[in-house]
TrEMBL record:
It holds the Pfam family ATP_bind_3. PANTHER family: AMINOTRAN_5 DOMAIN-CONTAINING PROTEIN, SULFURTRANSFERASE-RELATED. Residues 16-95 form the tRNA(Ile)-lysidine/2-thiocytidine synthase N-terminal domain. This is tRNA 2-thiocytidine biosynthesis protein TtcA. Residues 104-131 form a coiled coil. Gene3D superfamilies: HUPs. Signal peptide: none annotated. InterPro entries: Rossmann-like_a/b/a_fold (IPR014729), TilS/TtcA_N (IPR011063). Keywords: Coiled coil. It comes from Hirondellea gigas.
């Protein structure tokens, strides 16, 4: 996948942050790690995978680690980014900046590119984000050219 490219700074940063989080969860003796991915992250990840990795895949609300000792949960996947931004503004919560050049818009990212594309598409179809989100819950395997389940690949 595009995001799994080791040359992509976002991939490296995410991998390092996850490593630190997993280590802390283990130190604390916890079995769940809650991440802050939201509705828009799910849509953007879906599109990144389709456009740049040639796969239909997204983030899901709960996934087990490869060891099975830890569950990663995303309790905010049904909350839109604009609602989170509005909530933080109303409640005087200031977002933290990590100093990332991608976050600070000093360099482009595929995610930012797709955000712009989605804004353009919303002008003619205000429900486009919901449609993309829903599409990941309504996959009819009878009408796809092939799919992978676990390590098994099926093609038609």
């Amino acid at each position: 996948a595009f995001e799994k490219n080791p040359d992509n700074p976002c991939f490296l940063c995410a991998k390092m942050r996850r490593g630190v989080l997993y280590k802390k969860v283990e130190e604390l003796g916890c079995n769940k790690l809650a991440l802050g991915h939201h509705f828009d992250d799910v849509i953007e990840t879906t599109m990144i995978n389709m456009f740049y990795a040639g796969t239909i895949k997204t983030m899901i609300p709960k996934v087990s680690s490869s060891s099975g000792k830890l569950s990663v949960i995303r309790p905010m996947v049904y909350i839109k980014e604009e609602n989170i931004i509005n909530f933080t503004k109303r409640n005087g919560i200031k977002p933290m900046s990590c100093g990332c050049p991608v976050e600070d818009k000093k360099t482009d990212s595929k995610r930012a590119e797709l955000k712009k594309l989605l804004e353009q598409l919303e002008e003619t179809n205000p429900n486009i984000k919901q449609s993309i989100f829903n599409s990941m819950k309504n996959i009819n395997l009878d009408y796809v050219l092939g799919y992978t389940r676990g390590n098994k690949k099926k093609t038609k």
